[in-house]
User: Fold glutaryl-CoA dehydrogenase (ETF) from Sphaerisporangium rufum.
Amino acid sequence: MDPQDFLDVDRELSDEERAIRDAVADFSAAELMPHVADWFDAGTIPDPRGLARDLGKLGVFGMHLTGYGCAGTSAVSYGLACRELEAVDSGLRSFVSVQGSLAMTAIHRYGTDAQKQEWLPRMATGEVLGCFALTEHDSGSDPGSMRTRARRDGDDWVLDGTKMWITNGSVADVAVVWAGTGEGIRGFLVPCSTPGFTANVVHRKLSLRASITAELVLDGVRLPAGALLPGAEGLKAPLSCLSEARYGIVWGVAGAARSCLLASVEYAKTREQFGRPIGAFQLTQRKLADMLVDVNHAMMTALRVGRLKDAGRAHHSQVSFGKLANVRAAQRVAATARGVHGANGITLEYPVMRHMVNLETVATYEGTEEVHALTLGRALTGLDAFR
Assistant:
């Protein structure tokens, strides 16, 4: 029996979906896995632009979008790509997700044709990197309380404020910045070379270390009228982009969990104590069995949400269901895997501790566990408990 596909979910995939999955898996094994422990240890991606170009050639940036140089694949194909990337490291899936599901989706969904033509083809190839600036120091789960403001000055807009925890922020060429205006929350395309725009790298992270995170400071950033995303009006616009990113997480964490399970099965068969492999002990087998169930449940959940999405029937609360359930499952698997590996589990020689601490971040970004639980509670009762 195949532990990573115990219920033969692979049979439910199309030939095209398998081909995309295998291409990303092969790239990940050859180009990412040999280096990721060192990147995590160093707390950065040493050559993000080189990585972006390679990922652009692979076709994963905005691959679920149509036109403007984007591949136009199915949601399931995109999810499978996220799974294979996060099986290596959550930071690498986040690198792709922020570019495609957040920055590119915002432009694709809410921009003018001219804005799309200017940015999307180059972002799809990895020539241009983008970031998505919504979160602030005091505005996380409640983005409507953001303090960043945009005011009109003649035909221009002037932006002031600070954004925090922005993935790719210090290496991006363009930032999708959300700001309050007299007309509500609006989105702006901010070239990162604009005077008054500063990106400060966040150091000393204990999680998602193979990723680049920044604080963005906007001090009198002056933009032309054409920088406004005209279709993005109100908080629903950035939240719809977040739902796209959450969908990638539903698949991605299934990959992280799978990596932990496979490492644990191999370790349990080769690590000997008391004269036999630890996998021969009942307690270890129970741990492996629980991990197996969580991994395969997560994959089935991801595939179901993906099929709903491809059919145009996925509600944002179903994406919340997937994120809540699959992140919880992945955290259980990673913690159990760390225990199976004993003292070796805390080293970078094995992937389990790296996945375990990464999942601590994944559990809180793109909506905390509590936010998704309340989203499901509202879907069940029709009553809003957020306020």
User: Anything to note?
Assistant: The first helix runs from residue 15 to 42.
